[in-house]
Amino acid sequence: SSVFTLNRDTFVSFRFGAAGTREVRVELVRVDGTVIATFYNEAPGKVNTEMFAYFYKYTGETADCFFRVVDDSVSNYGCFVVDDFIYLVKFKFIELIISDNHIKNFI
Questions:
Q1: Residue-wise over 59-92: b if at least 16 C-beta within 10 A, else e?
Q2: Per-residue pLDDT tens for 16-42?
Q3: In what order do the strands lie in the sheet with 63-71?
Q4: Does residue 90 contact residue 98 with C-beta atoms inside 8 Å?
Q5: Which one-letter DSSP state was computed for residue 97?
Q6: What is the pLDDT, as a whole number, of residue 16?
Q7: How far apart are the first and last CA of the chain?
Q8: Which of 19, 33, 34, 71 has the fewest CB atoms found within 10 Å of its own CB?
Q9: Partners of 4 in beta bridges
Q10: Sequence-distant (≥ 6) Cβ neighbours of residue 65 within 8 angstroms
Q11: Per-residue model confidence as pLDDT tens digits over 47-61
C-alpha cells in the first residue's frame, strides 16, 4: 500500500481471503521494515476466496507504515483477495462495530 501514519490507539481494518494455503498473509509494516502485525489466511485448504474482516488496534508510538501482501506458498495453486483497507480513530471505529452485529465481538 501507500505509506500512511498510524498514531497510538488507532484501528486498522481490511478484508482478506486466500485459497489453498496459510502461507499467504497480510503484514502491517513500518517504513524501516519492522513488521508490526501479521494477519494469516483464515481458510487454509479451501479452494475459495471467501474474505474475512480483520481488525487491529495499534498501541505503539506514531509510525509511518504500509500494508504488504506476502505469498510464501510453494504449492501449485493459490490466490488471494484483499479489499477495504481503512484506518480509523477509536470512536468512529467503535460506532461501526456496535452498529453491525456481525463484528461487535471485536470490541
A1: eeeebebebeeeeebeeeebebebeebebeeeee
A2: 877 666 778 889 999 999 999 988 877
A3: 4-6, 63-71, 24-30, 35-40
A4: no
A5: H
A6: 83
A7: 26
A8: 33
A9: 65
A10: 3, 4, 5, 6, 28, 29, 30, 31, 36
A11: 667 788 888 888 899
Residue carrying the nine cell digits 506476502:
70
Q: How far is CA 70 from CA 23, 38, 59, 76, in A?
A: 8, 10, 23, 16
Q: How many residues does the chain have?
A: 107
Within its chain, how far is the Cα of 31 from the centroid?
17
Q: How many CA atoms lie within 13 A of 70 on its CB side?
A: 16
Nine cell digits for residue 69: 501482501
27 φ/ψ angles, rounded to the nearest 5 degrees: -120, 140
Question: Cα dihedral sign for 12, 107, 50, 29?
Answer: positive
- Return the C-alpha torsion angle 18, 10, 31, 44, nearest 10: -10
